[in-house]
Amino acid sequence: MARLCEDGAARFVILDGEQLYETADIDRICARHAIAAAHRGALWRVLESAGRTLLDQRRLQTTPVQLARIRQDLLLGLRVTRQLADLTPRAGQCAGDQPSAKLSRAHLAALREGERRAGAGAGAGSRLEEAHDTLAWLAEVYESALESCARVQREGQDPDAVWRAALTRFFTRALARSWTDDGGAAGERFLADCLAVLEAIDTPAPTPVLKVAAES
User: Fold this and answer.
1) Residue 141 CB contacts under 8 Å (≥ 6 apart), including other chains
2) Tens-digit pLDDT profile for residues 182-192
Protein backbone atom coordinates (compact mmCIF):
# COMPACT_ATOMS: atom_id res chain seq x y z
CA MET A 1 0.00 0.00 0.00
CA ALA A 2 1.39 3.39 -0.97
CA ARG A 3 0.36 6.55 0.82
CA LEU A 4 -0.35 9.62 -1.26
CA CYS A 5 -0.68 13.04 0.34
CA GLU A 6 -2.17 15.99 -1.51
CA ASP A 7 -2.73 19.32 0.27
CA GLY A 8 -2.78 17.64 3.65
CA ALA A 9 -5.30 14.99 2.64
CA ALA A 10 -4.12 11.39 2.83
CA ARG A 11 -5.03 9.08 -0.01
CA PHE A 12 -4.22 5.40 -0.39
CA VAL A 13 -3.59 3.34 -3.49
CA ILE A 14 -3.38 -0.45 -3.29
CA LEU A 15 -0.23 -1.65 -5.01
CA ASP A 16 0.91 -5.22 -5.49
CA GLY A 17 4.08 -5.91 -3.55
CA GLU A 18 7.25 -3.91 -4.07
CA GLN A 19 6.68 -0.60 -5.86
CA LEU A 20 8.31 0.12 -9.19
CA TYR A 21 7.54 3.83 -9.04
CA GLU A 22 8.43 5.77 -5.92
CA THR A 23 6.42 8.76 -4.73
CA ALA A 24 9.14 11.05 -6.11
CA ASP A 25 8.77 9.43 -9.55
CA ILE A 26 5.03 10.06 -9.57
CA ASP A 27 5.55 13.63 -8.33
CA ARG A 28 8.00 14.28 -11.15
CA ILE A 29 5.80 12.81 -13.88
CA CYS A 30 2.70 14.64 -12.65
CA ALA A 31 4.58 17.96 -12.43
CA ARG A 32 6.20 17.65 -15.87
CA HIS A 33 2.90 16.81 -17.58
CA ALA A 34 0.49 18.89 -15.46
CA ILE A 35 -1.45 15.83 -14.29
CA ALA A 36 -4.05 16.78 -11.68
CA ALA A 37 -4.27 15.17 -8.25
CA ALA A 38 -7.57 13.54 -9.25
CA HIS A 39 -5.71 11.38 -11.81
CA ARG A 40 -2.65 10.68 -9.68
CA GLY A 41 -3.84 7.40 -8.19
CA ALA A 42 -5.07 6.07 -11.53
CA LEU A 43 -1.77 6.98 -13.15
CA TRP A 44 0.16 5.14 -10.45
CA ARG A 45 -1.94 2.00 -10.83
CA VAL A 46 -1.54 2.00 -14.62
CA LEU A 47 2.22 2.53 -14.36
CA GLU A 48 2.63 -0.27 -11.83
CA SER A 49 0.46 -2.77 -13.71
CA ALA A 50 1.83 -2.03 -17.18
CA GLY A 51 5.39 -1.79 -15.84
CA ARG A 52 5.32 -5.20 -14.17
CA THR A 53 3.95 -6.77 -17.33
CA LEU A 54 6.62 -5.10 -19.45
CA LEU A 55 9.53 -6.21 -17.26
CA ASP A 56 8.23 -9.79 -16.98
CA GLN A 57 7.49 -10.09 -20.69
CA ARG A 58 10.90 -8.69 -21.60
CA ARG A 59 12.53 -11.37 -19.48
CA LEU A 60 10.50 -14.01 -21.30
CA GLN A 61 11.97 -12.88 -24.63
CA THR A 62 14.68 -15.51 -24.35
CA THR A 63 15.96 -18.28 -26.59
CA PRO A 64 13.56 -21.07 -27.60
CA VAL A 65 15.70 -23.60 -25.68
CA GLN A 66 15.60 -21.58 -22.46
CA LEU A 67 11.87 -20.96 -22.84
CA ALA A 68 11.29 -24.70 -23.31
CA ARG A 69 13.19 -25.38 -20.08
CA ILE A 70 11.11 -22.79 -18.24
CA ARG A 71 7.93 -24.48 -19.49
CA GLN A 72 9.21 -27.86 -18.29
CA ASP A 73 9.84 -26.43 -14.82
CA LEU A 74 6.40 -24.82 -14.77
CA LEU A 75 4.75 -28.09 -15.85
CA LEU A 76 6.56 -29.89 -13.02
CA GLY A 77 5.43 -27.25 -10.53
CA LEU A 78 1.85 -27.54 -11.78
CA ARG A 79 1.82 -31.33 -11.43
CA VAL A 80 3.27 -31.25 -7.92
CA THR A 81 0.87 -28.50 -6.84
CA ARG A 82 -2.14 -30.44 -8.12
CA GLN A 83 -0.96 -33.59 -6.34
CA LEU A 84 -0.52 -31.71 -3.08
CA ALA A 85 -3.96 -30.12 -3.47
CA ASP A 86 -5.47 -33.60 -3.85
CA LEU A 87 -3.75 -34.73 -0.64
CA THR A 88 -4.72 -31.81 1.60
CA PRO A 89 -8.04 -31.67 3.46
CA ARG A 90 -10.90 -29.42 2.43
CA ALA A 91 -12.56 -27.05 4.89
CA GLY A 92 -14.08 -29.01 7.78
CA GLN A 93 -12.70 -32.36 6.64
CA CYS A 94 -9.90 -32.53 9.17
CA ALA A 95 -11.91 -31.34 12.15
CA GLY A 96 -14.84 -33.56 11.25
CA ASP A 97 -12.62 -36.60 10.62
CA GLN A 98 -14.31 -37.09 7.25
CA PRO A 99 -12.26 -39.42 5.03
CA SER A 100 -12.39 -39.37 1.23
CA ALA A 101 -11.15 -41.50 -1.63
CA LYS A 102 -7.63 -40.07 -1.21
CA LEU A 103 -7.62 -39.10 2.48
CA SER A 104 -8.21 -41.91 4.96
CA ARG A 105 -8.82 -41.35 8.67
CA ALA A 106 -5.22 -42.41 9.31
CA HIS A 107 -4.04 -39.84 6.75
CA LEU A 108 -6.13 -37.13 8.44
CA ALA A 109 -4.87 -38.14 11.87
CA ALA A 110 -1.27 -37.92 10.69
CA LEU A 111 -1.90 -34.49 9.20
CA ARG A 112 -3.54 -33.26 12.41
CA GLU A 113 -0.57 -34.46 14.45
CA GLY A 114 1.80 -32.81 11.98
CA GLU A 115 -0.13 -29.57 12.21
CA ARG A 116 0.14 -29.61 16.01
CA ARG A 117 3.88 -30.22 15.86
CA ALA A 118 4.45 -27.52 13.26
CA GLY A 119 2.18 -25.06 15.04
CA ALA A 120 5.00 -23.54 17.09
CA GLY A 121 7.25 -23.01 14.06
CA ALA A 122 7.47 -20.34 11.38
CA GLY A 123 3.96 -21.11 10.16
CA ALA A 124 2.33 -20.58 13.56
CA GLY A 125 -1.20 -19.33 13.09
CA SER A 126 -1.64 -21.05 9.72
CA ARG A 127 -4.36 -23.64 9.35
CA LEU A 128 -3.95 -26.88 7.41
CA GLU A 129 -7.47 -26.57 6.02
CA GLU A 130 -6.45 -23.32 4.31
CA ALA A 131 -3.78 -25.12 2.31
CA HIS A 132 -6.13 -26.60 -0.30
CA ASP A 133 -7.46 -23.22 -1.46
CA THR A 134 -3.94 -21.77 -1.50
CA LEU A 135 -2.68 -24.68 -3.61
CA ALA A 136 -5.64 -24.35 -5.98
CA TRP A 137 -4.72 -20.69 -6.44
CA LEU A 138 -1.07 -21.65 -6.98
CA ALA A 139 -2.11 -24.13 -9.68
CA GLU A 140 -3.93 -21.29 -11.47
CA VAL A 141 -0.74 -19.21 -11.28
CA TYR A 142 1.26 -22.02 -12.90
CA GLU A 143 -1.39 -22.47 -15.60
CA SER A 144 -1.37 -18.74 -16.39
CA ALA A 145 2.44 -18.75 -16.47
CA LEU A 146 2.40 -21.61 -18.95
CA GLU A 147 -0.10 -19.73 -21.12
CA SER A 148 2.16 -16.68 -21.04
CA CYS A 149 5.16 -18.73 -22.19
CA ALA A 150 3.10 -20.35 -24.94
CA ARG A 151 1.88 -16.94 -26.12
CA VAL A 152 5.45 -15.67 -26.35
CA GLN A 153 6.43 -18.71 -28.41
CA ARG A 154 3.35 -18.52 -30.61
CA GLU A 155 2.93 -14.80 -31.22
CA GLY A 156 6.30 -13.29 -30.41
CA GLN A 157 4.44 -10.20 -29.19
CA ASP A 158 6.49 -7.08 -28.64
CA PRO A 159 6.21 -6.28 -24.89
CA ASP A 160 7.25 -2.66 -25.44
CA ALA A 161 4.35 -2.17 -27.87
CA VAL A 162 1.88 -3.59 -25.33
CA TRP A 163 3.19 -1.23 -22.63
CA ARG A 164 3.09 1.71 -25.02
CA ALA A 165 -0.53 0.97 -25.95
CA ALA A 166 -1.60 0.89 -22.27
CA LEU A 167 0.03 4.24 -21.50
CA THR A 168 -1.25 5.78 -24.73
CA ARG A 169 -4.84 4.82 -23.79
CA PHE A 170 -4.41 6.41 -20.37
CA PHE A 171 -2.97 9.62 -21.81
CA THR A 172 -5.56 10.09 -24.55
CA ARG A 173 -8.64 8.71 -22.77
CA ALA A 174 -8.29 9.06 -18.99
CA LEU A 175 -6.43 12.38 -19.24
CA ALA A 176 -8.28 13.43 -22.42
CA ARG A 177 -5.06 14.84 -23.86
CA SER A 178 -4.03 15.21 -27.47
CA TRP A 179 -1.03 13.07 -28.34
CA THR A 180 0.23 15.70 -30.76
CA ASP A 181 0.10 18.75 -28.48
CA ASP A 182 3.24 20.88 -28.26
CA GLY A 183 4.26 20.18 -31.82
CA GLY A 184 3.59 16.46 -31.64
CA ALA A 185 5.87 15.73 -28.70
CA ALA A 186 3.48 15.74 -25.72
CA GLY A 187 2.61 12.05 -25.77
CA GLU A 188 6.12 10.90 -26.58
CA ARG A 189 7.58 12.94 -23.72
CA PHE A 190 5.06 11.38 -21.36
CA LEU A 191 6.07 7.88 -22.46
CA ALA A 192 9.76 8.72 -22.18
CA ASP A 193 9.40 9.95 -18.60
CA CYS A 194 7.38 6.88 -17.58
CA LEU A 195 9.76 4.48 -19.30
CA ALA A 196 12.90 6.03 -17.79
CA VAL A 197 12.02 4.63 -14.34
CA LEU A 198 11.61 1.09 -15.72
CA GLU A 199 14.80 1.29 -17.75
CA ALA A 200 16.73 2.16 -14.58
CA ILE A 201 15.21 -0.85 -12.79
CA ASP A 202 15.89 -3.23 -15.66
CA THR A 203 19.51 -2.16 -16.08
CA PRO A 204 21.81 -4.43 -14.04
CA ALA A 205 24.12 -2.71 -11.64
CA PRO A 206 27.74 -2.67 -12.80
CA THR A 207 29.90 -5.37 -11.29
CA PRO A 208 32.58 -3.81 -9.11
CA VAL A 209 36.09 -4.56 -10.30
CA LEU A 210 38.89 -4.71 -7.78
CA LYS A 211 42.09 -3.33 -9.21
CA VAL A 212 45.33 -4.35 -7.62
CA ALA A 213 48.16 -1.87 -7.88
CA ALA A 214 51.13 -3.27 -9.72
CA GLU A 215 54.23 -3.85 -7.63
CA SER A 216 56.98 -1.40 -8.30
Assistant:
1) none
2) 776 899 999 99
